[in-house]
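# step 3/5: fold
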Amino acid sequence: MADLTPPPAPDLPEVRVVIVDDDPLVRAGLTMMLDGAAGITVVTTLADGDEVPATLDKHHVDVILMDIRMPRVNGIAATQRVRRRPHPPEVIMLTTFDTDEHVARALRAGAGGFLLKDTPPDRIAAAIRTVAAGEPILSPAVTRRLMERIAAGSSTYDQARSALATLSPREREVALAVARGHTNAQIATTLTMSVATVKAHITHIFTKLDLNNRTQIAMLAHDAGLL
């Protein structure tokens, strides 16, 4: 019988993905969903966060789909370890948001965003491509609920304000635009600068604030009461 699986679209760069979840049914389901997605390759699946470093030593990986709750090394600790590596892959946290109180910690650890485990397959694939391109994936509705939870117990207002005060006025404008979810192209248009200049400002912001992705900028801006 002929293979009816559609070939990857030639204009989509390959995104290499690792799935980390202690539930074998979740791993199998995600693999089935993503194997047919154009431009996405599932490199392997892992059952716990403690297996991630060895896998990254052996394989080039662009994005990790990481469960938050795992028995030996949870997704938050695993994400922290991943993001400390040179040229680390992006991390998307998998969660059942209504019952998981650790999402904010995961984002602070360097995750590029999070997905609910019942997210439709096409949206999971789109989210993987988005994060691989360096953009966070934070649904406005879910982010609003997340931020409300953070605000209820946040004690980092002064620290966040002090950190943002180290930025130049232009860097601060870029940081706030990033925090609002704008793309580099949108920021360039709004602030009347080139996309290359936007990227340079974001690199400086990462360095000054000791951050490694756009989601952490958003979290800092929220802590400072600017969103």
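# step 4/5: annotate
The CA atoms of residues 53 and 150 lie 30 Å apart.
# step 5/5: archive (pending)
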